[in-house]
Amino acid sequence: MSLNKVMLIGNVGAEPTVRYMETGVCVASVRLATTERGYTTSTGAQIPERTEWHNLVFWRQNAEVVEKYVHKGDKLYVEGKIQSRNYTDKQGITRQVVEIMVSGMEMLTPPKQNAAPASQPYQAAPAQPQTIAEPMASEEDVPF
User: Fold this and answer.
1) Do 52 and 33 meet the contact criterion of CB atoms below 8 Å apart?
2) pTM reported for the whole predicted model
3) Tell me, what DSSP letter sits at residue 84?
4) In the chain, where the domains are located
5) Helices (H) and strands (E) in the chain — how many of each?
6) Residue 46 burial (10 A CB sphere; 0-12, 13-18, 19+)
7) pLDDT, tens digit, 9 for 90 and up, residues 102-129
8) 51 - beta bridge partners?
9) Where does 6-37+49-129 sit in CATH, by number?
10) C-beta separation of 103 from 82 below 8 A
11) Which has the closest alpha carbon to 75: 42, 102, 110?
């Protein structure tokens, strides 16, 4: 038995990158920062704050929600799975990237701070596992 599940709460580091595939399927890419606060150990050692950056990939309806409502600085809760892939950059070097394939999200930023109308805060698709029918292999120009 194995499990590949990720749950993150963090802040969007830049405006999302959104593309539409030739088939009309929407794909959004977001950089999410999570920060562990610094602390002092019982021996007096100072442990500094540490920020991790996560590459999130949203598909279909969730990507369309990201396009309309998610902005730099917004706080998000996301669930998904870790997926790695290789690609060849413009210099011909093979690179590996690790991404979170998002299956569900919830926007945690109050509506007055983002583009969602205050009378209708939007909660994206529930954080339920979803099968992603679009294989990553067909996205030769991704990463964003």
Assistant:
1) yes
2) 0.74
3) E
4) 6-37+49-129
5) 1, 8
6) exposed
7) 999 999 998 765 444 444 444 555 444 4
8) 35
9) 2.40.50.140
10) no
11) 110
